[in-house]
Amino acid sequence: MSEALSRRRLLQGAAVAAGCALAPVSLDGLLSARAGVGDYPFTLGVASGDPLPDGFVIWSRLAPRPLQGDGGMPARPVQVRWIVAEDARLSRVVASGETFAQPTAGHSIHVEVEGLRPGREYWYRFTAGGEASPVGRACTTPPAGASVDRLRACFTSCQKYEAGFYAGYRHLAAENPDLILFLGDYIYEGDPGSRNAVRLHQNPEPTDIGGYRVRYATYKSDPLLQAAHAVAPWLVLWDDHEVVNDYGGDRDGDVDPALFLRRRAAAYQAYFEHMPLRRTALPVGPSMLLHRAVDWGALAQFQLIDDRQHRDAAPCAQPGQSGKLIADCDARRDPARSILGERQEAWLMDTLDRTPARWNLLTQQTLFGPLELRDPANLSEVRFSNDGWDGYPATRERIIARWIDAGTQNPLVLGGDIHAFASGSVRRNGDGPVVASEFVGGSMTSLGMDAALARRVQALNPRLEVYETGRRGYGRLDLTPGRAEIAFRALDDARDAESGLSTLNAFVIENGRPGAVAA
Is the CB of residue 88 less than 8 Å from the CB of residue 24? Predict the structure, then answer.
């Protein structure tokens, strides 16, 4: 930190706001940013993420021709300047600097801004080649251990480009969130031409870095997605489609593991290049550190975990089996197996031991609690999916036990993946007292299962209060020291770029009383 910035911080005083979203934000200026004109380099917008009490990451990527593998950029570093200010007009600058966008990183920019005041909003902008980026809005978290009155976060997942438009992001941004959580399947990797597609992917299925860059550019060129990235910091996780459908660990079905790991390395590199992540997440070949904890004063802690990269092989599959449904077997229940991997699971257990937060949010990719299914050919045969937590129930039970043994306050689980709004209770061994509640905040566009089938699934699983697969949207989470409020915000029609929105369900959890009550 410079001496000038240190003096500036002293003069600014010690007042700390409760959060970032204190004043309404208009999307008008964010949506009017130039995109795709001539050699304008900021065609993919801007973003912020992973906030701390004294700073956050700000991101962009230089790509004047975003649908080329190199973004239309020269094979040399390009100087980029950045500023952070206390006002949207950028007149009260509190931090600035320059960096170089490197061709080896797709000319992406990740600046870790430091030395800011806690618990307040800021605005930022990049310039390169005589051009200025759109202005983005970010915020710092409250000081560690500080008393905080409120927090609003919105969470979603599964935004298949071909399945719908991003009207949900227009409404999400208008909610004025402090944080936006994206819980996996930011892109889909398949060839263009999904059934009933409303728009098409712009390149064949990617397997190398150039292909994945074009796929991300297709998504990130959407103005509503850009605007949502510009209004608040994001916390991001991946699921499977950022690489390939249903991969787990170092395996993609029968594909040679060495070939698959080359593809995974390219996919992870492209993911980093397009997300507002800290340098600790920079991939090393096919490996990337994604799990982390983010605190919001004493009010909340988000424990973000990665259930794809480190998992043991899927259990109980029969020779030649193509689907994910399995009968129960000893391997499924083997306590030596983990969906998180040994090191990440040990980190999570230690984090749950130490967290002082009033609300603890296990932030992950999919449905956490058990989901009993049936063999379509024989409805009396119980089946489980081996692609999620039901393929690794011992890991789930260890987490529940740690919540109990450590006295973790108010655990809640947030998830995605299943293209549904879902809420349910989490119990030890499936039938004990309620320990936590979980909420899946729908998919932004990706289609869900048939409604009649969804009703049968819910009937088989009475722990699920909601299992709605016909609507798209996001979840909204409001926390105070005394209660958590969750609303499922559902679009009328995700295939309509101007779709309206309504609240599908709402729930309340009181401090110290596990279990959600319909509001």
Answer: no
**Residue 46 Cα distances to 148, 197, 459, angstroms:** 28, 27, 44
What whole-number distance in Å separates Cα of residue 462 and Cα of residue 151? 31
Our CA angle for 396, 400, 406, nearest 5°, is 140
The pLDDT tens digits of the residues spanning 209-239 come to 999 999 999 999 999 999 999 999 999 999 9
> Minimal CA–CA distance to 246: which of 156, 163, 307, 333?
307
Beta pairing, strands 421-427 & 121-128: unpaired
Report the Cα 1 to chain-centroid distance in Å: 30
What confidence tens digit (pLDDT) does each residue in 313-344 have? 999 988 777 779 999 999 999 999 999 999 99
* Residues 248 and 215: beta-carbon distance below 8 Å: no
Residue 385: per-residue pLDDT: 95
CA-based Rg of the chain, rounded to a whole angstrom? 22
What is the DSSP-derived secondary structure letter of residue 232? S
- Token reading at 186: 């930011």
Backbone angles phi, psi at 244, to 5 degrees: -160, 150
Contact, 291 vs 363, CB < 8 A? no
Alpha-carbon distances, residue 216 vs 351, 364, 419, 460 (angstroms)? 32, 21, 21, 38
Per DSSP, the three-state class of 147 is coil
CA angle 151, 157, 158 (to 5 degrees): 170
Judge whether 447 and 197 are in contact, CB under 8 Å.
no
Identify any residues that bridge with 508 across adjacent strands, giving them in sequence order: 485, 517
